[in-house]
Amino acid sequence: MDDALAAQMQQGLDDVEALLLETVHSEDSLLTEASEHLVVAGGKRFRPMLVLLAAQFGDASAVGVIPSAVVVELTHLATLYHDDVMDEAPLRRGQVSANSRWTNTIAILTGDYLFARASDLLADLGSDAVRIQARTFARLVRGQIQETVGPEADADPLKHYLQVMADKTGSLIATSGQFGAMMAGAPSHVVDTLTSACEKIGVAFQLSDDILDIASESFQSGKTPGTDLREGIKTLPMLHVLASSEPGDARLRELLAAPITDDDLHAEALSLLRAHPAMDRARADTRQWAEDARAELLTLPDVPARGALEGLCDYVVSRTG
């Protein structure tokens, strides 16, 4: 990212941060405290950054750019409050989770409040923006339900998993690119391309997170390595193993059949997974999603923001090792 673009991004993110805090403020002190809980905990602000980068393909100073970046971040934060309740998570971003600090009810209602505040901002951005957000929200909910209930008996588990990734993670990241370009007045074909490419980046990012959950020896993925194994969540490398008919994979398939709460069995499964060719296959799948995103980005005007987005494709791949 060149210096001029980096300076614009930093100023834009500062503006996003200020409007975020202003938007979540309430006359009720508890609601304000609970709403600010995750805002002040930090985070990558990945989605607002994509809004700002996409806006570079039009008028990046347009009035709707910053509010739309706040909308996607509020939506993302709201889902985290709800996720922590469903997962009974004690921590989020290194802080005590809202459900642990207060109650599940407070956490759920706080998430609802953030959705409401996002809708309030959207009302000033036009009916198209409202419709896009509503459809994105529907995909988020659908993805969560599909992940919760799992694939139907006759469904392809891998296809089901990738659809969950697209709905739960890719959809809001796609909307980030769409909002940025749309609010900046970019041509419709540019808006469509950024929407599609950002969704692919989002899927690739989530796939890389799932690989890191197995491969990382540290907390690089943001959670304790092997968390998905303990919770019985079937991620991409595991699905590749479970689809194998190789006799040598029988023990690992047996271990992956259910959540692994025993420490010794968990260590065994993690060791077998890390050494399995399924890890390289999952990395190749992730690389393909990133390359498909790059191919779409290369059809866009050659502006500094395009190079930054291409850099994100490289980063998603490099973080998996």
Automatic annotation (TrEMBL):
<dbReference type="InterPro" id="IPR000092">
    <property type="entry name" value="Polyprenyl_synt"/>
</dbReference>
<dbReference type="InterPro" id="IPR033749">
    <property type="entry name" value="Polyprenyl_synt_CS"/>
</dbReference>
<keyword id="KW-0460">Magnesium</keyword>
<keyword id="KW-0808">Transferase</keyword>
<protein>
    <submittedName>
        <fullName>Polyprenyl synthetase family protein</fullName>
    </submittedName>
</protein>
<dbReference type="Pfam" id="PF00348">
    <property type="entry name" value="polyprenyl_synt"/>
</dbReference>
<comment type="similarity">
    <text>Belongs to the FPP/GGPP synthase family.</text>
</comment>
<keyword id="KW-0479">Metal-binding</keyword>
<dbReference type="InterPro" id="IPR008949">
    <property type="entry name" value="Isoprenoid_synthase_dom_sf"/>
</dbReference>
